[in-house]
Specification:
By secondary structure, the protein is of the alpha+beta class. 35% of the residues lie in helices and 18% in strands. The protein has helices at 36-49, 75-83, 100-113, 137-148, 152-160, 172-176, 186-196, 201-221, 250-253, 287-292, 317-328, 346-356, 359-364, 386-389, 396-410, and strands spanning 15-21, 25-26, 60-64, 91-94, 119-127, 133-134, 170-171, 178-179, 184-185, 230-231, 237-238, 276-285, 299-308, 338-341, 415-422, 426-434. α7 runs parallel beside α12. The radius of gyration is 22 Å and the shape is globular. It starts with 14 loop residues before the first strand and ends with a strand.
Length: 436
């Protein structure tokens, strides 16, 4: 069986030449102002407008999305057509839960590396506030019987059989964030690994406050240059990620009650990622396309890896996906200049950091001779993460890659890794280098 540590990376160069994202907009108890397609176009249109080639010259469009709306089946194709790619440019949607956006980038990169494409628009989108509310099976059955009731008396009998249980809705978002195999919500899996690595409430809340402080500082400094403004149909503008809490403090967060384990838990709404709408789109190119269109290169996609692990501890996915990349590229933690690890939960990121420093975990679970070492938090999520920015599940994988490139450029640094945990017990990671 092939050892994942020794798999070859991409057979030919894949470059990331440009990218944009929308502001990430916190869900506020009702459907947001933008559908998934609206969000994707909000950043894809200005992105394409500044290129030296037209949308019709793209070879394909690949978009990650976990919950496209009922009018947006194969959301990537809808985006491509509305973007002006024309009918001949194929488009397809990928779904890998929280890493759908990163999967889109990986899928595009493979096509480019294999010579199947030269220019690909890829990224991710999620309108979580538009997640469906569904009828339960009792109600579906009742509606079916009503449709088959042709005579007035039959209809009366059917209506008489309607009971309150028929009206109990299924909240699509809650079901989607619950693992059907182990029966645990994502928050409960975060509690599991926090317990395993002894991550306490103070550590979680301190990390969450740091996330908000870093995002607030980035907004103040104007360093989030990848964001494109959104405008709704009523003329309202949305310029920044709106989930940031500039007044966040450990004392404030300490007042919040645990959500997923009310009696013994420490994971709260305040130290978890926010439910958010957003999109991030990037342009990937072959070496031939870079030369043909004289494209400026942001960075090069060096390697990627996908890993599986126990679903009940899915938050450790970055540990299992990053480690093989480091090993087969002869890199140590200290060789990575900057890191983006998606903040599904503060407990989850802190547990990953602890696992890399744990000799027994690294030996028993990763097959290493010793612990991998410590990641300097000054180089991790330097402008905040999912706790403050939000985590629109289909988009986050693309966002962290795009922002990592921005951080590398800003600091004239060479190398970075972006990674996410994935519901269902997986992890994904990408190794990026700045420039050509």
């Amino acid at each position: 069986m092939d050892n994942p540590v020794h798999r070859k990376s991409l057979p030919s160069p894949v470059y990331i030449v440009d990218g944009s994202r929308t502001p990430f907009l916190k869900a506020k108890g009702k459907p947001g102002n933008f559908t998934a397609v609206d969000l994707a176009l909000g950043c894809a249109r200005p992105l394409m407008a500044r290129q030296s080639f037209s949308a019709e010259q793209l070879d394909e469009v690949v978009v990650g999305c976990m919950m496209p709306g009922p009018d947006e089946a194969n959301v990537a194709r809808v985006i491509a057509l509305r973007l002006g790619c024309g009918k001949k440019v194929p488009a397809w949607t990928v779904q890998r839960n929280c890493a759908s956006g990163m999967q889109a980038l990986d899928s595009a990169a493979k096509d480019i590396a294999l010579g199947r494409a030269n220019l690909v628009l890829a990224g991710g989108v999620e309108a979580m506030s538009h997640a469906p509310v569904l009828f339960n099976n009792d109600m579906v059955g009742w509606l079916g019987r009503l449709a088959m009731s042709k005579k007035p008396l039959d209809k009366i009998k059917t209506f008489a059989a309607l009971r309150p249980r028929h009206l109990k809705p299924i909240i699509g978002l809650l079901r989607g964030l619950t693992d059907p195999v182990v029966g645990l919500s994502m928050g409960q899996t975060a509690e599991n690994i926090a317990y395993r690595f002894k991550i306490d409430r103070l550590a979680m809340d301190t990390f969450a406050v740091q996330s908000h402080q870093r995002l607030a500082a980035a907004q103040e400094a104007g360093t989030l240059t990848e964001i494109e403004a959104l405008y709704d149909k009523n003329g309202h503008s949305f310029l920044n990620d709106d989930g940031v809490r500039t007044d966040s403090s450990v004392e404030r967060l300490a007042k919040l009650r645990p959500v997923f384990d009310k009696q013994f838990g420490n994971v709260t709404a305040g130290n978890s990622a926010q439910i958010t709408d957003g999109a991030a789109m990037l342009i990937l190119a072959s070496e031939d396309a870079v030369k043909k269109y004289k494209l400026k290169v942001m960075g090069k996609l060096i390697d990627s890896h996908w890993a599986g692990l126990e679903p009940a501890q899915m938050g450790l996915g970055p540990v299992h996906s990053v480690t093989p990349i480091l090993t087969r590229n002869n890199l140590s933690i200290k060789d990575i200049n900057y890191w983006e690890i998606n903040e599904a939960f503060a407990a989850q990121v802190l547990s990953c950091l602890a696992a890399w420093q744990d000799d027994s975990y690294c030996k028993e679970e990763l097959g290493l001779d010793s612990s991998l070492g410590e990641i300097d938090q000054a180089k991790l999520n330097v402008d905040g993460g999912g706790v403050s920015i939000g985590h629109p599940v289909g988009a986050s994988g693309a966002r962290i890659v795009l922002h990592l490139l921005s951080v590398l450029e800003r600091n004239k640094a060479k190398r970075g890794i972006a990674s996410l945990c994935i519901g269902g017990g997986q992890g994904g990671a990408m190794l990026i280098e700045r420039g050509k």
